[in-house]
Design goal:
The chain has four helices and no strands. By secondary structure, it is mostly helical. Helix 1 runs antiparallel to helix 2 and helix 1 packs antiparallel against helix 4. It starts with 6 loop residues before the first helix and ends with a helix. Bound molecules: protoporphyrin IX containing FE (HEM). Protoporphyrin IX containing FE binds next to helix 2, helix 3 and helix 4.
Amino acid sequence: MELLQIFPHLNAALNASSGVFLIFGFYFILKTQVHKHRMCMISASVISALFLISYVTHHVIRTSYFGLGTTKFTGEGIVRPIYFTILTSHTILATMVAPFVILTLVRALKGRFDAHKKIARLVYPVWLYVSATGVIVYLMLYQFYPTR
Ligand code: HEM
């Protein structure tokens, strides 16, 4: 059970570090430092893939081995609708963005930079939103309003 409790913190750390690479990656392409942009975006993609594996592993162990449901949000009052609005938008966009991230990456790796730039301008802000709200959801659920 104790090992299981590490997962939310590990997942949040992966999510946050992928977000940091995203921000640096954008900064580098604005300065036309393509090599550094490439390194940051590949790092963000690999870390996001690790996050996905860890997230699914955690979910499967929780439900299949311990029969646990979702973690209850204990905040009351105005923070409840705020939390659930962030959580819903985060969940919907997170499930949608993954194939578009792959497409963006593939276009860049094939050297199709015009096509890459076109889709990247849409995918980037969504990915960054998913990453940032992932951290916010973690902080609200496990740090600010933990289950007593
Ligand atoms: C999924 C990962 C990636 C994302 C989300 C991403 C995001 C972006 C964004 C938002 C821009 C446009 C910046 C602007 O508005 O001017 C851009 C441009 C660019 N990216 Fe990426 N990028 C990714 C991966 C890569 C990779 C792996 C390379 C490999 C070299 C790369 C090379 C470039 C280049 C050369 C441009 C400039 C294109 C131009 O101005 O014609 N990107 N990228």
